[in-house]
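Dear Dr. L.,

I hope this message finds you well. Following up on our conversation about the binding site, I have prepared a predicted three-dimensional model of the protein together with flavin-adenine dinucleotide. For your records, I am including the exact sequence and ligand specification that went into the calculation, followed by the structure tokens. Please feel free to forward this to your student if that is useful.
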Amino acid sequence: LKLGNRMPRPKKPSSPKAPQVAIIGAGIAGIACARTLAQAGMHVTVFEKSRGCGGRMSTRRSPFGDFDHGAQYFTMRDPRFEAALATTAGTIKRWSANTVRVMDANGQVLATTGRPNDAHWVPVPGMNALVKAWATPLQDGSIPGCDVKLQTRVTQLEKVNGKWCLQVENGEQQQGFDHVVLAIPSAQAQTLLADSGLMPDWQSKIADVLVDPCWTLMLAYPQASQPGLSHLGPHWNVARSTHHRISWVARESSKPGRSAIERWTVQASPQWSQEHVDDAPDRVIAKLTKAFGEITGIRVTPSHAEVHRWLYAQTRRPLGQPFLHDATQQVSVCGDWCLGNRVENGFISGLELALAIAEA
Ligand code: FAD
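The resulting structure of the complex is given below.
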């Protein structure tokens, strides 16, 4: 990462005496933090509970093609994010959908939004490709990769002989860390700190952060690929919506580098998601598919419909600073929720924390 004067000079590979850092969470914040610390010569291990890297920048497989069922796209506003993306430039492509219609509940256009210079970018072939690429070393050796332990949920942290010891779900212990970073959603960070009996001075600040849930519906219509039919429904690919159930619909198959089978990703509104957070998936599929038909006019039965519930999707009230750090305990937190609700916020949070740790 070419990050200006503050970036420590790369020292590779890390020496056996290099500080050992454990990072919990392999979303964009955790991997940005890990990659920067590894570049600064530290020995970094990332622990991730899922089967792959990416977190909410994730990709869901289906028999009809993949869906970006978390983040839909990202924008680049900070030059440091742009510089970091340039290191894996082939992984991202511009999505032509940066003019977004605002539709009412009956599918009528209320307004058209979109900043002309705020391009929408997507990793190819799926949203998780960017974080995956950043977890891998650059071929020229200028940026080391990260040691990521997948399917490893951290359940507790404790200090043993002055070093951090991580308890993981299968009962194993991972020990010998000088510093531990929690790069996970705010509510999960709070729980992990509390379960570990840790009470940093800033713990109450995390409680003020608000993050909305989101039900996401994924629909596939292979019947639209029949001869003489290019697509179903509207001629636009993306819309925000004022329908009380739905806030966003996007034609997944319009993104670059994706398969052509007609697929739509539908996000329920924060309010509806909260009200229906404990509903059964089948009920959510039925209600959201009906609302989707009202907005788009697509009323044929999809060949594939599934939902995913994000309990912590997008930040409503952020922390207001890029990270929190306890220098005595050597424990820190970062994540999008520190600064906002966008992919770039996660990157900047992880980066700023890594620079602070490296400088210290
Ligand atoms: P996460 O991506 O949540 O990463 C945290 C990681 O920690 C996860 O991989 C999780 O599995 C892991 N983890 C949690 N607890 C543990 C544990 N105990 N042990 C081990 N691992 C653990 N942003 C945009 O810019 N544009 C958009 O269009 C957009 N749309 C969105 C739509 C939806 C439905 C959602 C959910 C998000 C959207 N976002 C969007 C927000 C964007 O996805 C986030 O800002 C960003 O991905 C957050 O990254 P992060 O690294 O901070 O957290």
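In brief: Confidence is low (pLDDT under 50) at residues 1-11.

With kind regards,
A. P.
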